[in-house]
Amino acid sequence: MADLVLAKPRTDWVGIGFAFILTVVIVVPMLVVVIWSVSNVWRFPSVLPQEFGFKFWQMTLARSDVWSALTMSLSLSAVVTGLSALICLPAAYAFARMEFPARTLLFFSFLAGQAFPKFGLLVAIAAIFLQLNLIATFWGVVLIQLVGTLLFMIWIPVAAFQAVDRRMEEAARDAGAKPLRVFWSITLPQAAPTIGAAVLLSFVGTFYETEGAWLIGAPQIRTMPVLMISFINNQPVIQYAAVLSVLLWVPSLIALVFTRRVVNSGSFARGFGA
Amino acid sequence: MTARPVSGVQSSRGLTGLLLVAVPVLLFAWMTIWPILSGLARALTPEQADGSRPVSFANFVTFFSDPYSLANLGITLWTCLVTLGLLLAICIPLALYLRFAQGRLATYVQTMAMFPMFVPSIILAFAFIRVLGPNGTVDLLLNAVGLPKIRSPYLTPWGPVIGLVWDNIPLTVLILVSGLGAVSNQAVEAARDVGAKPLALFWHIILPRMWTSVAVVVSFTMLGLFASFTLPYVLGPASPEMMGPFMQRTFRDLRNPEMALTQATVTMLFCIAFGLFYVRAVARNRES
After folding, report:
1. How far is the C-alpha of B21 from the C-alpha of B218, rounded, in Å?
2. pTM for this entry
């Protein structure tokens, strides 16, 4: 460790070691998946595929179960994110800007869900859904995924609204702007980038949500991750799952590009209690 | 609005505020607080043959006297502890490096360490099987240089451990690096000036300032691991199984919600201390 702090000019062997190990452990598995998706033939003893090609991309994209799972995942994510924004953003604005009884208590109450192991909580919810006949229904899965987005979609926008410069709002109001106009022209544009990141993260998070969809939705509601589990467990042709993995990855890469700034900031780590 | 009496403004705004937060708060209460209480109540009042529900610990007695349930609880605890140990052993050095190193190499290491956050667990599970599974990449490479195949960790208790460590590296590193922000460069340099060796430096200067973030990591990962489902379900052995797949199977395949709720209550009780500590840490950060 002494080397790390003091001797900057010396070769950073520790860093090279970490970089090498992490590259092997993290990049190689992902590369293997990509290679599998573009191999027409890859039989055992060969280190690389005998034949490259996009044969299995065509075959995977021709499968109706893939298309119905993709449609299901996209519509679930859109409905959940839309509903979540509809109920959470006004609430976030109220938490950030208004005084009302029990404000702090209600704000922190959303943490209560974090105190329990998530799958135990899902089973408890599923037991209630069983009595309400919501098991294996679209709206059952919507509800369980919606609850998963609440904390995120309230806490991040609250921080965004709190970060808006109050003096600019007051200046606009002094110039005669109505409250709604101030909100629309001053508050929202400043808070929008962070809120956009929260909405994107909630969409992507819902797209990949597996456990609620599996416990509540299966077998009728088949999302992409649920289909992926059945490909891994029951599909002898490896390439189908490989192509599906690469397809499944796209939303995550989009999230990576657009939310890197949020994730790298210290406030993100603090949100997890660091 | 300014023309109105102040108290009137406040009470009307107070009502507006409450109305605006009502929907998510009520939804949250109905889908989190209520299921936990009602699940606990149902686990404590087993249904009798005549349909009555007297209060009794019978469900918990059944759980704790069933060798299979105990084996599942045991494998869950084992997985949590091994994963946690490995995570700390990997991430503390990594976080120390990222805290003190600068330059492009450090940025690259950080990017790599954060990358698993953007790989969904299910893709990770598939990649794991293709690399470490039977006839996977490791076997191919070993075979190419004339060495015997590995004993694959796929479908053994080590499968979920490896997957969960991989999956949890980014958040663990983030939390630890954030905690190391409390260690000032001056403190480290001052200790070095008086001749402290690296190990002494770590033990006396850095570690005491890291405890909080280590505790946060421990509770956060214990909660996450105790309730993990996807990786143990896909990568782990069928028997004994971790609590996640066990609860899922009891609920969906055995159609026994009461026993599944008992299992859920047991996992919640095992995690309660970690959960309370974690929530307190998050709330305290948010307030400051």
Report:
1. 33
2. 0.88
Q: What is the pLDDT of residues A159-197, one digit of tens each?
A: 889 888 888 888 888 988 888 888 888 888 888 888 888
- For chain B positions 64-93, those within 8 Å of chain A (CB to CB) are none
Alpha-carbon distances of A116 from B27, B228, B272, rounded to whole Å: 17, 12, 7
Q: Is the pLDDT of residue A8 over 60?
A: no
Q: Which two tokens stand for residue A221?
A: 């509601």
The answer to whether residues A67 and A16 belong to one domain is no
Contacts of A199 (CB under 8 A, 6+ apart): A81, A85, A153
Beta strands in chain B (DSSP E): none
> Whats the size of chain A, residue-wise?
274
User: Does A67 lie in the same domain as A11?
Assistant: no
Domains of chain B: 67-287 (1.10.3720.10)
Query: Does residue A157 sit in the same domain as residue A37?
Result: no
- Residue B190, chain A, CB below 8 Å: the answer is no
Same domain, A91 and A70: yes
Domain that holds residue A17: 2-56
Residues A260 and A240 occupy one common structural domain: yes
Domain co-membership, A83 together with A10: no
Beta bridge partners of A41: A51
Kindly determine whether residue A29 and residue B124, on different chains, have CB atoms separated by under 8 Å: yes
Q: Burial of A64 by CB count in 10 Å (0-12 exposed, 13-18 middle, 19+ buried)?
A: exposed
The HSE-up count of residue B250 (CA atoms within 13 Å, CB side) is 25
The answer on A192 and A244 residing in a single domain is yes
Cα B20 to Cα A47: distance, rounded to the nearest angstrom: 60
Sign of CA dihedral B75, A141, B282, B117: positive
Q: Where are the beta strands (DSSP E) in chain A?
A: 39-41, 51-52
- Count up the domains in chain A and report the number: 2
The pLDDT, as a whole number, for residue B3 is 40
User: CA dist A34 to A39, A132, B132, B157, Å?
Assistant: 9, 43, 16, 27
Are A190 and A230 part of one and the same domain? Answer: yes
- Reading the block at residue A230, the tokens are 């059945």
Tokens matching residue B284 = 């305290």
- A154 vs B30: CA distance, rounded Å: 17
Q: Which residues of B touch A103 (CB under 8 A)?
A: 17
Environment class of residue B123 by beta-carbon count within 10 Å: exposed (0-12), middle (13-18) or buried (19+)? buried
Q: Which candidate in B13, B91, B123, B210 is best for mutational testing of the A interface (most A CBs within 10 A)?
A: B123
Q: Does the ipTM exceed 0.95?
A: no
SS3 A223: coil
Asked whether residue A273 carries a pLDDT value surpassing 70, the answer given is: no
Q: Do A14 and B276 touch (CB under 8 A)?
A: no
